[in-house]
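If you are new to this repository, start here. Below is one unmodified record pulled from the training split, so you can see the exact layout before writing a loader.
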Amino acid sequence: MASITRCLRNVNFGRSILALGVLLCSWAAAAQGIHVKSAQLDPNSGEYYLNANFEVDLTPTLEEALNRGVVLHFIFEFDLILPRWYTLYLWNKRVVEYEQHYRLTYNALTRQYRLSLGALHQGFDTLEEALAVLGRLPRRSVFAIDDIAQGVVYEAQVRMRLDTAQLPKPFQVDALASRDWNLSSGWYRWTLTR
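And here is the target side for that same chain:
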């Protein structure tokens, strides 16, 4: 009888360890991706300036692909929308659209990560440093104050995502079927009134 009790305790302990392992794996998977830390529009000198911060964490699959020479393209998107009460969300009027494209590469010879924005490039010794800079959108003027009507409620939204259409063709096929290749913060929305 004592040996059966000991055996049952070991099984329960094993289940507890397994449950803890599953919990830790799901927590680690949830931590990977792109998450919006903050986003806001500030009026100044007749313009609205956008400040946005993201937390970017690559999946192990993306990190391995990057370290093997695959270029990762990221897109930051901002929209200012005039909601229409009589239509679905798809037919709301986009007042302002703004995009910014980034490229993240790894050079195995110099062992440096390189983040590019247009013709501007910056090198980093670690991936964490490169991702931290990628996640910080510098203050940018996105539209003039006079572009929006006074007293009207607008909806602002931002997101950052990996542009899977820019991946090499074999990886695009993988991206269709695997969550490891689809990285996006999802839209973060807030209202704006002049």
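Two things worth knowing about this chain: The two ends are 76 Å apart (CA to CA). Residues 1-31 form one domain.
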